[in-house]
# Entry
Amino acid sequence: MRGVGFSYDRSRPFIEDVSIGFERGAVTSIVGPNGCGKSTLLKVACGIVRPCRGDVLLDGRNVRSYAARERARRLALLAQGPRPPAMTVESLVACGRFPYSSSQGRLSRADRAAVEHAMELADVACLRSCDLRRLSGGQRQRAFVAMTLAQDADTVVLDEPTTYLDIGACHDVMGLVRRLNEECGKTVVLVIHDLDLALRYSDRMAVMDAGAVTAAGTVDEVYASRAIDEAFGVDLHRCGVGSDEVYVALPRS
Ligand SMILES: Nc1ncnc2c1ncn2[C@@H]1O[C@H](COP(=O)(O)OP(=O)(O)OP(=O)(O)O)[C@@H](O)[C@H]1O
# Structure
């Protein structure tokens, strides 16, 4: 994104002059207070909405210049809190294969294998025949993650993928994000509220505040910049060493 501006209401820009690159092959978390524009930034970055100024490039080309199917083969977006449709988990996950499907919409053998693989990765194979509307919030969230994985795009964009999940399931999803990155070579960009999860599982971070990106870089660079403390009005502490490190945000004294 280069010099990007976006406005919901023409009279005042909401995002102003944002320039940020999401590094290929990295897991990047975007954090920031409620309403600061994280989901909006993702929508602009994925070409869902048109910026009023600046450029958004995907693989060197304007993200909105791709045909929908072509873009969906490069970029998979799991939006925030999608409403569950009346279908089974397996049918939902199969929707992830839409960018590859024939005009009759039939699934090929490769499509079926991708659906199966995605359900296993997200641990929803045992729920395949369940109606989405009857699942818990966490089970449903995992089903939507599986649909996004079935899309098999190089870049996966997740807007709050750990919403509704208990802490064990949060670690499972973030562990899955790391495996997708390390074993499948996916570039992952996600918005997340839990600072410890963000700092623990990401390579890079971006901090947003009031429609602007106030810091971006490696986890260590962003932690050292104190931009997270400023954005949330907290004192962020890193305790422990190595894999026992934990990040704790305390109220400012
Ligand atoms: N479709 C829309 N039309 C008008 N305003 C919108 C629309 N979507 C979002 N907004 C406004 O834009 C601002 C930023 O919203 P956004 O969802 O990007 O924030 P966020 O940082 O993702 O918030 P949260 O952490 O609460 O999910 C909010 O004030 C919101 O009300």
The chain has a mean pLDDT of 92. The longest helix spans residues 167-184.
